Amino acid sequence: MPYTIHEIKKIEQKWQEYWRTHKVFEASSDTSREKYYVLEMYPYPSGKLHMGHVRNYTIGDVIARFRRMQGCNVLYPMGFDSFGLPAENAAIKNNVHPRAWTDQRMNDMVAQMKTLGLSYDWTRFLYSHSEEYYRWNQWIFIQMFKQGLVYRKKALVNWDPVDQTVLANEQVIDGKGWRSGAEVEKREIDQWFIRITAFTEDLLADLDKLDNWPERVKTMQRNWIGKSHGTTINFDVLDAGGNKIDELQTFTTRPDTVFGIEYVVLAPEHPKCREWVKGRDNEQDVLEFIASMDKESLIDRMGEGREKNGRPLGVFARNPVNGKVVPLWTADYVLMDYGTGAVMAVPAHDQRDYLFAKKYNLPISVVIRPEDVAELKAEDMTAAYVEPGIMVHSEQFDGIGSTEAITKISEWMEQQGTGERTITYRLKDWLISRQRYWGTPIPIYYDNDGNPHPVPESELPVKLPDDIEFGKGNPLQTSESFRYYTDPDTGKQYRRETDTMDTFFDSSWYYIRYTDAQNRNEIFSRDMANYWLPVDQYIGGIEHAILHLLYSRFFTKFFKSIGLVETEEPFFRLLTQGMVLLHGEVMSKSKGNVVDPDDIIKKYGADSMRLFILFAAPPEDQLEWNDQAIDGSWKFLGRIWSLVEKRYHPTDEFVDPSKFDKDDKDIFREINAAVKKVGEDIQNYKFNTAISCLMILMNNLDKYEVDEAKPHKQALFNHIAQTVVLLLVPFAPHMCEELWEKLGHSDCAALTAWPEFDEKALELDEVEIIVQVNGKLRARVTVAADIAEDALKEICLAQEHVKTFVDGKPIRRFIYVPGKLANIVV
C-alpha cells in the first residue's frame, strides 16, 4: 500500500472507529490495578480548535497512551467549561439561545478532537450547562452555606446605566460599556462570597508539598495569597480644628519608618473618603476624583511608570508615635484590597510616596540614613531611600539599625497601645455572584425579612428558565417562571436569588466528578474519588496559574474537610505548556495569523501534525509554527511505513545474540538504548528528544543490511521494526496501529505492553579511548570495554604519535577515566 494522504485518511478513520467500537480507552472500575489519571484543563467551547489546543491535548494523549502501554488503568476524560459570558454575548448578538450556541460549538470541537486520535474516555464526558452537572454545583454551594463558608455582603460592581446591568471588568472599555457606550458607574450591590480565606494558611503551607509543580506557578500563588508580617497602627482622625472625629487603622511592613510619616492616604473606594468630605468645601472635587477612578483598571493604577494622582480630604491624622498631625489624602495608587485600604505615607523611604510628595509639594522627613553616610538630607534626595540603614530623628530609637528597629518599634507600640503586630493576607474572599443568565443559578430564596435560605436539596437542580429577556438588567429577573420560589409545604411564595455563579465554580471540581461521572444519586462515589485522586498529570496554560488552580485547591481542601475525599491536593504533577507562535506572534484571529488544524490534517494527516507539534520544542517552551518542518514529520513517518512495507519479512528464526556480529551488536544495542531513552523522555516531558532518538535510530537502521544467508539478521530486523512501531504509538497512533496489524498482530497496539530494554545489551564490547599527553589530544585507540588500566597504559604508550611527546621524559601520572580518556602526564 502506498504512503499517501488518501490512504492515511482511510487508516485514521478505520482506527478511530475501531477504538470507539472496541471501547479501547474506557477506564476500568477495577480499583486493584495501578491507576494513572491524566487531564487537561477544562476547555471553553469556543467552537474551533486552534494550535494551542492541539499542542495541549497531544501532550496529554502521549502521556495517557504511554501509561496504558505500561499497564496502568488510565483515566483520561474530556468535557467543556460551557457556561460563561461569551455564550451569553453571542446569544444577544445573534438572537440565539446560549444553549443552542454552546451545544453546536461543543459538537464541532468534539468532532475535531476525534480526528486527532485523542484517546479520551468519552463515557465520562461532562459539560457545565448540563442540569446533571450544575445540580451538584448547587449542592456544593448549599454544603458551604451550612458550614458558614458562603455569605452575602455589599460590593462594588461596574454598572451600565443604559443596559441596566453589571459588567465584567473586560466589558468596560475606556470607562464605557462595551455594548451601550454609556459611562460606567460603580455601584454597591449585595453579592455572594465564598470564604476562601478560611483555608488561607493551608493553601499557602501546602504549596511546599507540591514538588512536581513548576516553581514559577507556586511563586505566583504565594504572591497572590500575599502573607505579610507587619504592624497595625491606630490613628486618631481630626477635623481642621483639631477635634477628634473618627479613628483609622493602617497596616505596614515598615514600622521602622513611622517617625517619618508625612500624610496618610486612603484608597478612593474606601467608604471613609465620602463620609469625611460630606458637607465640606472640597466634597465635589473629591467625589469627582473618586468617580474618575471607576474608569481605571487596578493594573493601570498600579503601573510602575504611571504618575500618581490624589486629592486632600480636608481632615487630618495624628501620628501616635510622636503626636504629629498630618493630612489625610485619597490617591489612585492605594488599593482597597490591600491591608485596611489605608496606608501611612513616608516619602523619604517609599518611592511611590516620594513621587506623590514631590508632585503635591508635601514634606519629606528622613528617619533612616545609609550606614556610610553621616547625614541624609531630604533636599539632596532624588529618590526614596529604601535600603536598611541607621535610625535618625526617631527619638529613643536613634542610632540602632533599621532592621532591628522593626521589632523594637512594634514591641514599643504594642506596649503603648498604639499598634499591634499583625499578619495580613492579600487573598480576599471570592466574589461569585454574577448578574448573568448563562451560569449556575444560586440555590437561595429569601423570606419576608430578607433572610437567605437554601433551596431543599431534594428540589435540585434549580433550573435555568427559558422565558428571559436580555438587555434589561439581570436576565433572570425578567423570568416570571423563575423569580419566585413556592414552599412545597405551605404554598407560600418567596423571592428567589437571581444571580448566577462565577464559572470558576464549575471548573473547580470537575476533575473529581470525572471519577464517577454518571452517578445520579450522589456527587461522586467516595471510593472512586479516593482511588483516582489526585490527578497524576494535569496540563494547561500558565495563565491559569492563580485563579483556577487556587480555587481547585480550595475545593479539594473543603471536600476533605467534610469527608468527601482523602487527598489534600487535586493535582500531583503540573505541566504548563508554552504557546504556539507564527512569525514570533501568538496566533489569533485578529492578527490573521491562525493556522487551522483541519487544513493541516487534510494535507498531512493527524499523525504528522501530532509528531511535529511534539518535536518542534520542549512542551514548556513557546513553539514557532513551521510549514516546512511539518513536511519533515510527514517524510519521517513515510520512512517508518516503508521500513515495514519493504523490509519486514516473516521468519521462523528467533533473535539469537550468540550469532551476532559487530553490526548486529551495534544495532541491537541501539534499539535497547532507544527503548530506555524514549520511555524516560516521555516521563520527563522530553518528547522532542524522544522523537529525535527515533529519527537517529532510523538513520542507522537504514544502513543495517539483512543477509539472506543469515536468517538471524532478518529476525533481528523484524524485532527492531516491531519495537520502533510500539515506541512510536503514543506519538503517531493511527499509522502505528495499521503497521502493527501489518506485522501480523491481532491485538490493539494501544494496549500492547511497552517494550522492555535489556540492560546487558547496553554494555559495550569495545570503546574508543581518547589519549592525551599533558592534556592535549595525541591519539585515539579502540579497546575492550573492560580493559585493565595497566594494559591500556601499555597500548597508549605504544602509539607512534604518543611516543613523539613521551620518549625520554619521565611519566609522572597516568590518569584513566574509564570508557572515555587516558591522560599521560610527563
Structure description:
It is a single chain. 35% of the residues lie in helices and 19% in strands. The two termini are 65 Å apart. The strands form ten sheets. Strands 10, 11, 12, 13, 14, 15 and 18 form a seven-stranded mixed β-sheet that branches. It is an alpha+beta fold. The protein is built from 24 helices and 34 strands. The longest helix has 22 residues, at 662-683. The radius of gyration is 35 Å and the shape is globular.
Mean pLDDT, to the nearest integer, reads: 93
Count all strands and give the number: 34
* Percentage of residues in DSSP E strands: 15-25%
Helices, by number, come to: 24
Structural class per helix/strand content? alpha+beta
Major sheet details: 7 strands, mixed
Radius of gyration: 35 Å
Oligomer: single chain
- Percent helix among the residues? 25-40%
Gross morphology is: globular
Poorly predicted tracts of residues:
none
Cα separation of the termini: 65 Å
